[in-house]
Amino acid sequence: MANYFKNHDYKIVSIEYNKYTPEVKNAYKNLKDYKNLTLLFGNSFEILPKLITEDCCILIDGPKRLKAIKLAINSLKKPLVKAVFIHDLYRDSPHRKDTEKTFLNFFFTDDYDYVKKFRYLDKQNWIDQRKYKEHRSWGPYKRGEKKMKSYSSTLLVVFNSNNFCDMSQFKKHTDEYKNIKRYWSIKYLIDGWPKRLMKIIQFPINYIFYEKVYNSKKQISKRELLKKWILFTYQIVKKLFRKRVSYYKIDE
Ligand SMILES: C[S@@+](CC[C@H](N)C(=O)[O-])C[C@H]1O[C@@H](n2cnc3c(N)ncnc32)[C@H](O)[C@@H]1O
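# S-adenosylmethionine complex -> structure
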């Protein structure tokens, strides 16, 4: 987006949850030359409402799933938000069907007509992503051996209006979802470990990178690094057992 809008007068703000992760290192490397972009750190549920001071659009790529839909609903309550995009609500997602019932003025980028018209834009991306081990086997309608019902990860695009969603449908979905959540929670707990461990192992590199390159800090004490490393690991483990907190709720 920063590249596409580089000659326009649009400001882009990107929010990352945590400073000391590989995503930030990648984001910094890819984005440092764009003057139209600001990178902020923290929880979008807290930061986003303060940023909505003029007409804007919001693209949610994290948090994912139910939290993403909640963040979208909270944001769309503000008329300054003209549209919200949510990543990863592909047809195999457990939230897809109810998302279709919840929002009223929307489309998905895996709609067959949309794919037919725009898939040519993706050609080079499929080739480029072969560089990345974990995505090498991904392609249109497949992730490795697994067939996908959607062309790819998919963006949901919701346009704002006075009546942008049917809350009773969303409520029904969240009630029903409580039953299937256990399965997904266990899957999340188990499947997420390789990634979590990598984050913990790579923490010192990411910390030093952030403080030295991003924050231009000259000296980093070992003690400080160790303290932060322990805290980071504690936070990752704590997150797994965390109860739902109030800012993940729908705003009244
Ligand atoms: C798929 S990654 C996207 C990384 C990067 N922005 C990019 O486009 O390459 C999703 C990111 O969302 C962030 N995230 C998840 N929940 C969040 C929240 N509540 N507030 C802010 N960021 C969040 C995570 O830290 C993670 O880095």
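# post-check
The longest strand covers residues 81-87.
The radius of gyration is 20 Å.
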